[in-house]
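Postdoc handover notes: sequence design on the structure in folder B. Input tokens:
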């Protein structure tokens, strides 16, 4: 009998999150879907038999711990974590409420810390695993109107790097996938109606890259993966 595998995915929304659920389910995983919107998760769980809904706000530390304990009890020890939940607020540092930066840190950085502390020890005990964090190029640069978003993504990436250095020798692959693109979603199509298809990065392709990195051979692990459409200026 093939080994039963469990994957935890946070931030399961209608775009990248849903694509990630589909890709890992196709790869034979039982998928624990975490997001605040229970209705969306329920619909996806009805569609994908191996996906289970776990409504949870990742910024609620106690609720997150209880949810992860429930995941382990019902689906087994997760071998893969994809932290896709994102907190974003845009504006320059003078015009946006400072509390938003705090909220973004809770979603982007602190949740990654708590997820890692809860799941990685079990991965090590099981012989290995993978932690993939989805991000963007705000993790590498601070543009003026990203003042309350970029610091949290930069901190997220540095935390992931510290985790990778700490647990890589124990068999847990931690990697950061930065998306330098506008993701192809109904609302982004409306915002950029005159852009051609190649302007957008498709969620299914983002999910494929995350899946590939989660299954890299141990002799050739990557940490930073920056993906963008072929026509993107960079």
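Designed sequence:
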């Amino acid at each position: 009998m093939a080994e039963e595998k469990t994957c935890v995915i946070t931030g399961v929304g209608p775009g990248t999150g849903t694509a990630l659920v589909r890709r890992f389910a196709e790869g034979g995983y039982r998928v624990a879907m975490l997001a605040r919107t229970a209705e969306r998760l329920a619909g996806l769980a009805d569609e994908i038999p191996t996906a289970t809904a776990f409504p949870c706000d990742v910024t609620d530390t106690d609720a997150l711990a209880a949810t992860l304990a429930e995941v382990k009890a019902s689906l087994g020890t997760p071998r893969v974590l994809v932290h896709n939940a994102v907190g974003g607020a845009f504006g320059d540092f003078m015009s946006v409420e400072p509390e938003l930066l705090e909220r973004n840190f809770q979603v982007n950085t602190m949740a990654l810390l708590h997820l890692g502390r809860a799941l990685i020890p079990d991965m090590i005990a099981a012989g290995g695993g993978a932690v993939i964090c989805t991000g963007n190029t705000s993790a590498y640069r601070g543009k003026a109107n990203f003042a309350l978003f970029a610091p949290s993504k930069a901190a997220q990436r540095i935390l992931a790097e510290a985790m990778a250095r700490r647990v890589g020798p124990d068999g847990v692959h931690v990697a950061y996938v930065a998306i330098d693109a506008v993701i192809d979603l109904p609302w982004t199509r409306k915002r950029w109606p005159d852009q051609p298809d190649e302007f957008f990065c498709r969620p299914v392709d983002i999910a494929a890259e995350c899946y590939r990195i989660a299954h890299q051979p141990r002799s050739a692990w990557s940490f930073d993966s920056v993906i963008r459409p072929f026509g993107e200026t960079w």
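Context for whoever picks this up: Residues 5-227 form a domain with the Rossmann fold fold (CATH 3.40.50.720). Don't rerun without checking with the PI first.
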